[in-house]
């Protein structure tokens, strides 16, 4: 007689917040389409934005660039957090600012700085809690986008990327666990490195964000493309074969039937249903603007006006 053991796996939590992942090099000076779209997701007039520069090797410059972009409208409270040590990641005053923010924005740089400094910290835990339990926007560009996924690409030469063991991965923040995000994707020719990761993890969808391209992810499933650039989707669900488990280090990888889609502004993709979404599909789903995600202005907002840290 076979005894079946029941699974203790918890049901998937549908987050109340939104993710905005950007491929890098977005417009920060002129039309600011992607950045103003982020602000438009907060359904109240006075918005509180916190910019986290942890990924950047030049945090002062990165912080000032995004401060100028987000502070163009004087009604918004914009703060910059230069969190560069594990000790700072436990700072109570910074934690309070994370709790109060409508938008938490990660700049670009090196995603390993984000995970090594913030990983397991009170700040990271509060970001995860707010994303799951509240209508909070978690946004990031370049490294700040790559760090969102549970499996995070953290290095590897694209020219040699379809050879086993040439791509480095680590554990990301884990805001999304059914996709792997890569950035500067088209411009830096990163197709092959994302192909390698998806071939080894075909249950995860590969998301390759081009420059000035972004996606809004609702409920951990439905994504909508924004910006002027291109987003590439690598879908491994129909993958028939790969030799990756049978070859040695640095040997070439064979992959059969990896499906590729591209989406641009007005198009989308359902990560849970593995389904391409055209404009009419998105209109029926009405992502982002659904009644459940409307953040009403209560009229009680305080204006802490956080400044540069």
UniProtKB/TrEMBL annotation:
Sequence segments annotated as region (Disordered): 288-309
GO BP term, pick one: proteolysis
GO molecular function: peptidyl-dipeptidase activity; serine-type peptidase activity
Catalytic activity: [L-4-(L-arginin-2-N-yl)aspartate](n) + H2O = [L-4-(L-arginin-2-N-yl)aspartate](n-1) + L-4-(L-arginin-2-N-yl)aspartate
Active site: 142 (charge relay system), 184 (charge relay system), 211 (charge relay system)
Pfam families, A to Z: Peptidase_S51 (PF03575)
Sorted UniProt keywords: Hydrolase, Protease, Serine protease
Matching Gene3D superfamilies: 3.40.50.880
EC numbers on record: 3.4.15.6
InterPro entries: Class_I_gatase-like, Peptidase_S51, Peptidase_S51_cyanophycinase
Alphabetical list of PANTHER family matching this protein: CYANOPHYCINASE
Similarity section: Belongs to the peptidase S51 family.
UniProt function note: Exopeptidase that catalyzes the hydrolytic cleavage of multi-L-arginyl-poly-L-aspartic acid (cyanophycin; a water-insoluble reserve polymer) into aspartate-arginine dipeptides.
Descriptive protein name: Cyanophycinase
Organism: Anoxynatronum buryatiense
Lineage: Bacteria, Bacillati, Bacillota, Clostridia, Eubacteriales
């Amino acid at each position: 007689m076979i005894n079946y053991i029941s699974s203790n796996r918890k049901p998937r939590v549908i987050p109340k917040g939104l993710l905005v992942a950007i491929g890098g090099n977005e417009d920060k000076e002129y039309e600011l389409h992607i950045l103003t779209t982020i602000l438009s997701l907060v359904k109240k007039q006075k918005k509180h934005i916190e910019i986290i520069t942890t990924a950047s090797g030049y945090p002062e410059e990165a912080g000032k660039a995004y401060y100028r972009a987000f502070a163009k409208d004087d009604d918004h409270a914009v703060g910059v957090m230069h969190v560069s040590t594990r000790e700072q990641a436990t700072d109570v005053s910074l934690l309070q600012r994370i709790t109060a923010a409508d938008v938490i924005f990660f700049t670009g740089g090196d995603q390993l700085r984000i995970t090594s400094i913030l990983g397991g910290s009170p700040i990271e835990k509060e970001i995860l809690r707010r994303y799951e339990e509240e209508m909070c926007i978690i946004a990031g560009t370049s490294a700040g986008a790559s760090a969102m996924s549970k499996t995070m690409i953290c290095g590897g030469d694209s020219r040699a990327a379809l050879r086993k063991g040439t791509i480095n991965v680590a554990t990301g923040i884990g805001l999304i666990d059914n996709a792997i995000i890569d950035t500067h994707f088209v411009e830096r020719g990163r197709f092959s490195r994302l192909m390698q990761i998806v071939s080894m993890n075909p249950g995860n969808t590969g998301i390759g964000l081009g420059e000035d391209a972004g996606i809004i992810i609702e409920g951990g499933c439905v994504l909508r493309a924004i910006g002027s650039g291109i987003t590439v989707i690598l879908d491994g669900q129909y993958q028939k074969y790969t030799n990756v488990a049978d070859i040695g280090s640095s040997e070439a990888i064979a992959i059969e039937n990896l499906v590729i889609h591209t989406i641009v502004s007005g198009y989308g993709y359902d990560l849970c249903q593995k389904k391409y979404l055209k404009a009419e599909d998105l209109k029926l789903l009405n992502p982002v603007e659904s009644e459940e995600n409307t953040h009403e202005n209560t009229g009680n907002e305080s204006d802490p006006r956080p400044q540069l840290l």
